[in-house]
């Protein structure tokens, strides 16, 4: 059974940093698009970063860094210079992907989702 479990969310002051983790289990194969998405209160979910697990190709918005530890089957999202507008539930997601397929932050393209971890940033 495929499972994604996020952790690392916290309540922090603006200007700080956080590293979110997403532990993956139950996957078959090693070629996936994995992404981090967030949903601020009262707003739609949006993508912030993607990574292809085989090629290593990444995309991330300005203050975000996505990385993976294949040995630990864990995905990370580093968020620096946190702002109050970063307050949101953060989700990781995954979908099987060909190794040459670019990953996109399109919610409907992702098949597996975690339950989310809450990040709250105060000014």
List keywords for this structure.
4-stranded antiparallel beta sheet; globular; 11 strands; mainly beta; 123 residues
Q: Which residues form runs of ≥5 with pLDDT under 50?
A: none
The main sheet comes to: 7 strands, mixed
Structural class: mainly beta
Give the CA-based shape.
globular
Helical residue percent band: under 10%
Integer average pLDDT: 96
Q: Would you report the number of β strands?
A: 11
Q: Beta-sheet strand percentage?
A: over 45%
Radius of gyration: 14 Å
Give the N-terminus to C-terminus distance in angstroms.
Answer: 40 Å
Query: What is the string of helix and strand elements?
Result: EEEEEEEEEEE
Number of helical runs? 0
What do these coordinates show?
- This protein has 123 residues and is mostly beta strands.
- The chain is built from no helices and eleven strands.
- A hairpin with a 6-residue loop joins strand 4 (32-39) and strand 5.
- The protein is globular.
- The termini are far apart.
